[in-house]
Amino acid sequence: MEARWGQTWVDQGVFVPADNGLKERRYVLDMFPYPSGDLHMGHAEAYAMGDVVARHWRHAGYDVMHPIGWDSFGLPAENAAIRNNQHPAAWTYKNIETQAHSFQRYAVSSDWTRRLQTSDPEYYRWTQWLFLELFKNGLAYRKNSPVNWCPKDQTVLANEQVINGRCERCGTEVTKKSLNQWYFKITDFADRLLDDMDELEGHWPERVLAMQRNWIGRSRGAHVRFGIEATPTQRAHDVPVFTTRPDTLYGATFMVVAVDAPLAAELVTEEARADFEAYRESVKALSDIERQATDREKTGVYLGRTAINPLSGETIPVWASDYVLADYGTGAIMAVPAHDQRDLDFARAMDLPVRVVLQTEDEDPSVSGVAVVGDGVLVNSGPLNGLSKAQAVPQAIGVVGDKGLGQATTNYRLRDWLVSRQRFWGAPIPIIHCADCGEVAVPDDQLPVRLPDDLKGEQLAPKGKSPLAAASEWVNVACPQCSGPATRDTDTMDTFVDSSWYYLRFASPRSTEHAFEPEATKNWLPVDQYVGGVEHAILHLLYSRFITKVMHSLGHLTFKEPFKELLNQGQVLNQGKAMSKSLGNGVNLGEQLDKFGVDAIRLTMIFASPPEDDVDWADVSPGASQKFLARAWRLAGDVTSAPGVDVTTGDRALRSVTHRTLHDSLNLLDSGKFNVVIAKSMELVNATRKSIDSSVGGADPAVREAAEAVALLLSLVAPYTAEDMWARLGHEPFVANVPWPAVDETLLVQESVTAVVQIKGKVRAKLEVPADISEEELRRMALENEQVKRSVGDAEIIKVIVRAPKLVSLVTK
Ligand code: ANZ
Ligand code: ZN
C-alpha cells in the first residue's frame, strides 16, 4: 500500500491547497526540523499529531495549508564539514534529502510545493532584509559587551547554552570575553510581549505562558539613590539601587554591589583591592543561576567604603558579592537582611546588623535565620511607622521622590537578543563597515550577501573570529555610500533569527519581491494551529512573537501574534526515560516502520496517550495496531452493496453507532483528544464486524456506511490503509478530500428500554435505561436505586444476575 499510494499523493498534489478563496483557509504548521541525520521517534510523534489536525480540517471542508521546510543553518553542519573536509552545504543537503524521503514515506500530508530551507540564498536573502528592517528602524545595534565564551568551540554562547557554567555542546568551562556584537532590541517590546499574552490565554498551554512571563520577568519597584561617601583619596558617588520593596528602606543596613560590575572596581579602596581582585577572579566562571542559588554559601568582600541610607541618614558599609548580578537592575542593591533571605544569609555570614522594619508574628530573623517576608505593620521606620506594606510602598516612593532621590520604575529580566555569531554556516549580517560612513546597510539590490562556497574543512575551524574574516576577497568591498575601501561584517546570524519568521514565508515561498507577499499573508496568516515540542517554549516562540510585533509595528503585518493555537506534544520515551545513546534505549524509527508499517506506527503514536502526554515505547504495541488496521481493512472486502446505495434503509442499530462515532469524533478532534477518536473507531470496527457476521450481513447498506466511516476516521492517522479501503469500497481517490458525512441527529438519540429489577423473583422496581447500556452500568443503576435499597433492607445480597438491557435479578438472604 505504501508503494501504491505514497508517490501518487505527491505527484497529484493532493495536499496542495487550492488557494482560490472558495473554501475558508486554515494554516497548520509543525515546527520545522533541523536536518541532523534521519527522522527519529520524536519527529514521528510530532508530525503524526500535526497531521491529524491538517487531515481533520480537510475533511471538515477547509482549504488547508500544511507546509514543510528545514531549519538548515547551524553548528552541527559546520562541525561535520571540518571533520570531513567539506563545505557545510554538503552534509546539510544530504541530510535534508534523507529526511524528505522519510517524510514522504511517513505520509505527512504536506504541501511539497512550498518547501523551503533557511540555508537557501533565496530564503536568507529575506532574513537579511529582515535584519536591515530592524537596523534601519533602530532595533538592531552593536555594543561591546562581555559574552559567554567557549574556549574549545571558540564561539559566543547564549545564556541558555551555558549549563552549570559549561558549554552545552562540549562541556568545556565557559569564560567571559568582550566582543562587539549585534543585538536586537527585544526589550523595547517587553510590555507588548507580556500584555498580548492575554490573547493567548486558553489557546496556548498555561505552562508555556508562565515560562514566557517569567522569562520577561517584569517587576515593579523603584530606583533609590544612595550616596557613597568620599574618602581622602576617592571621590563621592551617587549609586542608584533597584528595589521592589521601597517600604523596607529603613531596614537597609548595608549595600551590595555586583563583584563584576565596573562600579565595584571603581569603589574599592587601595587596602581592599587585592582581596577584591582575588575574589572577583574566583567567581568568574559561575553562571547567573549558580550565583543566585539560595542554598549556596554567601561570599563577598568589604569594599572599604560607606554609604548613607537616604531615609534614615544612617552610615552603612558597602560590600561586593556575586549574589548580586551586574546586568540586572542597576547592579547594586540595598540589603535588607530582616526581610530578604539572601541578604539575611549574607548578613549572618559577614556579621552585619539585621533590623526588623515590618512587625509580624514571626520570630526574630536574626535568631531564626529566616527572613520575614509576610505583611505586617511598619516599625523603626520614622514617618512610615504604623502603615501596612501596601500603604508604605507608594508612601516611601513619594518621600524619596520629594527629596529628589529616586522614582518608581519597572525592571525586566529580559535582555536584548544577541544575534551575531562568529561562525560560518549562517546568514551573513548584511552590513558593511566603512571608516568614514560607519555601519552601512548592504543595498537591497545587492542582497543576498552570499556565503562563499569555496571554504571547506580546516578553513572553517573557529579561531576566535568568524571564518569569514579570512576570506579576504569576500571581506573587502567598496563602501556603498562613498565607494571608499570598506569591509563586510564577518559575523553570521543566530539561527533563531532564521526560524523567527519562516511561518510568514510559507504563504508566498517563491516571492522574489517580498519576504512575505501582503495578499498571501492576509489570506493565510496568522497560523491557526502550531505544533511542536515544549523545549521551544521560551526562545523560539518569544523570538517569533517579537519579530511578528516588529513587522506589525513597521506596517508589514496586520496581526500581532503569529500562532493562534499551540499544541505541545509529549516526548517519546523508552522504559520511562528519554531515548539516548548513552542509555542505549534508543528506538530506530526506520526499523519500526519496516517492521510494522507506517500506518501502524502513526496509529500507535496517536493512540498511546493524549497529545500532551509522553508516550513510553515500552508500553505500546505496534503489533496490535497492525492487527487492528488489518481487521478494519478487511471490512471493505465484506461490503457487498454498491457505492451510493441508499443508506437510510440500513440497519438502524449499526447506523446509530456509526453516526454517534462520527458526531463524537468531531468534538473530540476539536478538543484535541485524538487518542479517544481511535478508541471510538475501534468500537465502530467491532460493531461493523458483528453486523457483517450476524443476520444483518454485508449486503446491508448500513454496513457500507459504517465501513466508509471507518475509512474516513482512519485517514486521520493511517492514510495508506484508509486510501486502500476507500478504493476497495469502489470509490475514486482520494479519501483525504472527502467531506465528513452529515450526522443524522435522529440517529444520535439513544433508544431507551424498560429494565425490571427483581428481588427473589418479584418485580420491585422499573428503570428507564439506554438500549445499549452495559452490564456494569445497569448493575450499578439497580443497586443504587432507592426503591431497590428499601426493598433489600437489612438483607444480604448474595447474588446479582444482570441481563442487559432488560433485567436485574437479586438473590438475598
Ligand atoms: C530591597 C529588598 C527588600 C528587596 C526586601 C527584596 C526584598 P525581582 O523581583 O527579581 O525584580 N535585586 C535588585 N537588583 C539585583 C541584582 N542585580 N542582583 C540580585 N538581586 C537584585 O527582585 C528585585 C529585588 O531583588 C530587589 O528588591 C533587590 O532586593 C534585589 F525585603 O531590595 B530588594
Ligand atoms: Zn563609506
Automatic annotation (TrEMBL):
It is an enzyme of class 6 (ligase). Belongs to the class-I aminoacyl-tRNA synthetase family. Residues 32-174 form the Methionyl/Leucyl tRNA synthetase domain. Residues 414-617 form the Aminoacyl-tRNA synthetase class Ia domain. One of its GO terms (molecular function) is ATP binding. PANTHER family: LEUCINE--TRNA LIGASE, MITOCHONDRIAL, LEUCYL-TRNA SYNTHETASE. GO terms for cellular component: cytosol. Residues 213-393 form the Leucyl-tRNA synthetase editing domain. Keywords: Aminoacyl-tRNA synthetase, ATP-binding, Cytoplasm, Ligase, Nucleotide-binding, Protein biosynthesis. A motif ('HIGH' region) lies at residues 33-43. ATP binds at K581. A motif ('KMSKS' region) lies at residues 578-582. Its EC number is 6.1.1.4. It comes from the Bacteria. Pfam families: Anticodon_1, tRNA-synt_1, tRNA-synt_1_2, tRNA-synt_1g. GO terms for biological process: leucyl-tRNA aminoacylation. This is Leucine--tRNA ligase. It catalyses: tRNA(Leu) + L-leucine + ATP = L-leucyl-tRNA(Leu) + AMP + diphosphate.
